[in-house]
Design goal:
Arc Repressor Mutant, subunit A; three-stranded antiparallel sheet; binds glutamic acid
C-alpha cells in the first residue's frame, strides 16, 4: 500500500520548492512594532462595488496609519467568474478614489517582493503546501462525482444530519486503511482521472454545542470570537488544480505576511475552516476585521442590503460616471466607517481626512447605513472646501472621460473657475455644487451651447416684459456696482407701476401690477433662462457685458 509520502509524490511529482524554501523566500517583514500589513483581494468579476471601496479604506487606513504595508492581490481562483479587462477596471477604479497601494498588482506589473500577487499565477505554491498536507496524512484525494455527492446530500437530508463531506460520509478519507481502496486511488491517479484534494478535518462531526472544541479568534471589529471546530473535509484544491478561496486565503495571507485580514462579514461562517487550515499548516492566525454589510433604507422604509440589481449606486462606476469627487466619496465613507468621524470633522473643518485616527473599534458590526442624500450633503461641503481652479481641472478630466460633449465648458479655465466660485465667498457661502453631471447642468446658462430658457416670465410682469428689458438695456452700465445696478431696476419697476418693495405690494396689491421682484425675474429669465439663480449682478460680472447685452437683446 502507498504511504502518505508516496501518494503525495504520485499526485505532485515535480514541484520546484519546498514549503521551507517558500518560508525563506517570503520572510517576516521588517516593519516597525505595531505596523499592520493589509491587503485588498478583489475578484475580477467586472463589477467593483462600494463594499470593495469601503473595505479598501479600512485596509489603507490601518496600514498607513501604522507605518505598515497595503497591497493589492487579485483573487481569480473562480474561473467561472472571469471577465476581460476586469483587473484594469479594479486598478483604475481604486486609483480614482485615491486608494494608494504600496505593493501588489499594478497596471505595469507587480511591485513588491511577496508576489506573485495574482492567485492564478501561484499554482505551484498552493500545490506545494497541499502536498505537505498530503504527506502528513492531513489531506486526501477525493474522486466523488457530482452524482455521488448529491446522493450523499439526499441521504443526509433524510437522516436530518449536517450536509457535507466529512468523516462517516467520505469514501476516500480513510483510503490508507483499506487495501482495495488504496489500490483504486492509486490506479485512478495513474489513469489521470479528475479528483479534488480535501482537508482531512480533525474536528468531531456533529458534536453538540457543549462538546465541540472552540477557538478564540481576534476580530478587531467584533472583539474575541469563540469559533467552533470545523469538521468538514473542505476542498482545498479543485479538479482544475486551482485552490479554493479557503486555501488560497490561508496560504497567501501567511506567505504575504498579512497581519490584518479585512473582509466582509459574509466570510464569518467560513472562519472555522480557516482556523483549522492555519493550524494544520502550523501558522498563526491573522487578526480579522469582518466588516458589516452596506445597507440602505429600502422603498418600504426597512433596512436592506444594497443590491447589484436594484441599486446602481452599489457600483463604483456610478460615482465616476456621475462625477462625484473622490474626496467627497472618501469623506462620506469615513462618516459611515467610524462613528466619531463627523464630530472630528466639525472640529477640524480644514484638516486632511488622513489626520483622523481611524479605529476598528468604532466600526459598526451590524450593518452600515448608506444614504445617497447624505453623500450629496457631504459632497456639497467637500466641494466648498475645494479650490475653484482645482475643481475646474478635475471637471475637465471627468468630462474628457465620461462626458466629452461638455468640451466647450473648458475652453477658458479661468472663466470656469470664476463661475464655480460664484457665491462661494459670501457670508453664507453657496453650497450647491454636488457632482460633475449636476454641476454641468447647474452652470449651463453661462454657455451659449447649453443655454435655454426653461422658465417663463412671472404672470404679474409678463405683458411688460418687452418694456422692462428695453429700459434695462438702455440703462445698463456694466461698471455699476451692485447697489447702483439695483437702484436702476427699482426705478424701472416704479416707473412702470410696480412696488419698489415686495412688502408694499403685499399690503396694497390693488395699487400695483406687482413688485420689483417680478421685474427682476423678467431680467433673470432673459439672462439665465431660470427664475431662480445666484445673485444676478455677480453673474453678469462673470458673463461679461457683451453676453449680457446679447441675451437681453434676444428677448426684444
Ligand atoms: N476575493 C474575495 C472576494 O472578492 C475577497 C475576500 C477577502 O478579502 O478575503 O469576496
Amino acid at each position: 500500500m502507498l504511504s502518505n509520502r508516496e501518494l503525495a509524490q504520485l499526485i505532485y511529482p515535480s514541484l520546484p520548492h519546498t514549503p521551507e524554501e517558500y518560508e525563506e523566500m517570503y520572510p517576516e517583514r521588517k516593519l516597525p512594532e505595531g505596523a499592520r500589513v493589509t491587503r485588498l483581494g478583489p475578484s475580477p468579476t467586472g463589477f467593483i462595488h462600494l463594499g470593495n471601496l469601503y473595505g479598501a479604506f479600512v485596509d489603507e487606513r490601518l496600514a498607513h496609519q501604522s507605518g505598515g504595508v497595503f497591497f493589492l492581490r487579485i483573487e481569480d481562483t473562480d474561473d467561472k467568474r472571469f471577465v476581460e479587462n476586469a483587473v484594469e477596471t479594479i486598478i483604475s477604479s481604486l486609483a480614482f478614489f485615491d486608494i494608494r497601494f504600496d505593493e501588489g498588482v499594478t497596471e505595469n506589473g507587480d511591485i513588491g517582493s511577496y508576489g506573485d500577487y495574482t492567485q492564478s499565477h501561484r499554482g505551484e505554491i498552493y500545490r506545494t503546501f497541499a502536498r505537505r498536507l498530503l504527506e502528513k496524512g492531513m489531506a486526501y484525494p477525493c474522486f466523488l462525482s457530482e452524482k455521488e455527492i448529491t446522493a450523499i446530500r439526499e441521504k443526509q437530508e433524510a437522516e436530518k444530519t449536517s450536509p457535507g463531506i466529512y468523516a462517516g460520509w467520505s469514501k476516500y478519507r480513510d483510503w490508507d486503511k483499506d487495501e482495495a481502496l488504496a489500490t483504486e486511488v492509486e490506479s485512478r491517479i495513474r489513469a489521470g482521472e479528475p479528483f479534488v484534494i480535501r482537508l482531512k478535518s480533525r474536528g468531531v462531526p456533529n458534536a453538540s454545542a457543549e462538546e465541540t472544541a472552540r477557538h478564540t479568534v481576534t476580530d478587531a471589529v467584533r472583539g474575541e470570537l469563540s469559533v467552533p471546530d470545523n469538521f468538514q473535509d473542505v476542498v482545498i484544491i479543485k479538479q482544475t488544480g486551482i485552490p479554493t478561496y479557503h486555501f488560497a486565503h490561508v496560504v497567501d495571507d501567511h506567505l504575504m505576511r498579512t497581519t490584518h485580514v479585512i473582509r466582509g462579514e459574509e466570510w464569518l461562517p467560513s472562519l472555522p475552516i480557516h482556523v483549522e487550515l492555519f493550524e494544520a499548516l502550523g501558522w498563526d492566525l491573522p487578526v480579522y476585521c469582518h466588516t458589516a454589510q452596506l445597507m440602505k433604507i429600502g422603498e418600504d422604509g426597512n433596512k436592506r442590503k444594497l443590491s447589484k440589481r436594484k441599486d446602481p449606486e452599489l457600483s463604483l462606476d456610478y460615482y465616476r460616471s456621475q462625477g462625484y469627487h473622490p474626496a467627497a466619496v472618501r469623506e462620506y465613507l469615513l462618516t459611515i466607517l467610524n462613528s466619531n468621524y463627523e464630530e472630528w470633522r466639525a472640529e477640524n473643518p480644514d484638516a486632511s481626512s488622513d489626520e483622523f485616527v481611524f479605529t476598528t473599534e468604532k466600526m459598526s458590526s451590524s450593518g452600515a447605513l448608506f444614504d445617497l442624500d447624505k453623500l450629496n450633503d457631504v459632497s456639497k461641503s467637500t466641494l466648498l472646501r475645494t479650490d475653484a481652479h482645482e475643481l475646474a481641472k478635475w471637471l475637465k478630466a471627468w468630462s474628457s472621460e465620461f462626458a466629452p460633449e461638455y468640451g466647450y465648458v473648458f475652453e477658458d479655465m479661468d472663466h470656469l473657475a470664476d463661475i464655480l466660485d460664484l457665491g462661494r465667498h459670501d457670508a453664507r457661502p453657496r453650497a450647491d455644487l454636488v457632482y460633475a453631471r449636476q454641476i454641468m447642468d447647474h452652470i449651463s446658462y453661462f454657455f451659449d451651447e447649453s443655454f435655454s430658457r426653461t422658465d417663463s416670465y412671472p404672470e404679474e410682469a409678463a405683458s411688460d416684459a418687452g418694456e422692462i428689458l428695453t429700459r434695462y438695456l438702455e440703462s445698463y452700465d456694466h461698471s455699476d456696482d451692485n447697489g447702483t445696478w439695483f437702484d436702476k431696476i427699482r426705478q424701472i419697476a416704479t416707473d412702470l407701476g410696480y412696488a419698489a418693495k415686495p412688502k408694499d405690494y403685499k399690503k396694497h396689491p390693488e395699487e400695483y401690477k406687482g413688485h420689483v421682484g417680478h421685474v427682476s425675474t423678467v431680467i433673470r429669465i432673459a439672462l439665465m433662462g431660470r427664475a431662480v439663480s445666484p445673485d444676478v449682478w455677480a453673474i453678469q460680472q462673470i458673463m461679461g457685458e457683451e453676453k449680457v447685452r446679447s441675451r437681453i437683446g434676444e428677448c426684444l
